[in-house]
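Page 47, continued from p. 46.
Same chain as before, 478 aa.
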Amino acid sequence: MATLEQYLDMHPTAAWNRNSWDERDAAIDVRFHEPDVFFTPLANYVQMPVGVGLNQKWYTGREMIASHANHNPIGWYQRFIDGIYLDSRERALYSRKRYGGKAQWDSNDELVTRFSNDNDGLIAMAMNASLLNNVTTVHEKIARDAVLRFAQNKFLGNLSQWDATHNVSSFDGTGSNKFDIKYLEEMSLRLAIRSGEHKGKFGDYANPVPGEQFRDNVLLAVPTSVYWDLWNSSAREWMVDLRQLSDQRVINGGKIQYRNITVQDYGVSMTLWNAGRILKQVKVTEPIMWGDGSPDPETGVAVDNIWLTGQGGAAVTHYIQCEAGSFIAGDFKYGDFINVHTMRTNEMGVTGGCDNLDGMTITVEVVSSDPVTARIVVRKPITELYDKVLADGSGAYAYVTAAQHVHPCYAIGARGMVTWAGREKITWNTPSDEEADFKSIKRVTWQERGEMNTWDPDLYEIVYCEGSFANRGNVSIR
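Result:
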């Protein structure tokens, strides 16, 4: 990441030659340069060649393996010696997945009537109104999930290496796994040795990743909770606020510097909410439909005595119905972040934990809960559909989990730890409304084909930490 421009100019559309771009590609490019984009530019983006089958690998990244140099003397009169053995290695990419999204309105909606006779204008409106945010959010999650899933070098905040014993199940809420600034020094030592695997030569303490000007350009990207913990710790006396220096390494969000290593606040949205030690997990026993969950505005119940939220009437369920007797007072408190999800996982070391990397997992904020009726009311209407009984035999439509939050920190020696192999560029379509007696729906969809692959896993590390949390109450470890 030698310059800000090189960092930001990486996104899925960049894999295609700009001579083939149209105004929609340009709009995508602009959106990926907004300040809320962090994970997408960390990946490489390449175009899968035509002719590679769906489930075939494309072999690329071929490089020479350096041979051993035998420094023993040869015979004084020796006429022949063995040749230097040369070999090579290469990496393989898959491109087997498809992603997409849709926005739709009635043809009489105000947003549509302005562009009803202009298909390009309708697409542009839909892109600006919702779909560009949908594209960038999807790719931010794809990139983040790939970095998490393919990580080979993982640690905890207390400097322990991740294994079957040391994982987020050992987080106990005491702060013993808050980020330890000594990690940055240990990371430098490890990267100096591991960089030989990918850079062809070892680094040193001052420049652990050769050619990257490491201690001038490395990013330690941390969530806001960890950033707060660092800035309010004894390590603060060694930190410099880069904004005071007008430093060009400030990419998105706040920055501080520790011994020439840049510490970046990447925000709160990509925190692994409720991914750790389970505090309470309950079954959802009735379907959750779009718009459910928030207080009924027709009864005059306003969130914070301000917001009449969502839609009223009997067609909407104004709570999440959980299994009877499954929680008590205090399990789901006002201001708590909880997850509604359909998948559970043991991958983080927590048995039956919430799978934050599944697309059906959403985070909602509690307004109130009633253990007598086993109902939870949330701040905003739920925008995902949970209307099918889960296949796990639980009889539930979903789970609600309150757990300790996990705050991953990303130590990035060089970008390109994962690579997106794109098979089809982002395309846009306006499907017709053919089945209804009276056509009234206007739809705009986007889709693309591609897949994230691991690339240079030795050039980054992930530290899973406990962190401070505060929303509508005091700061505490959560």
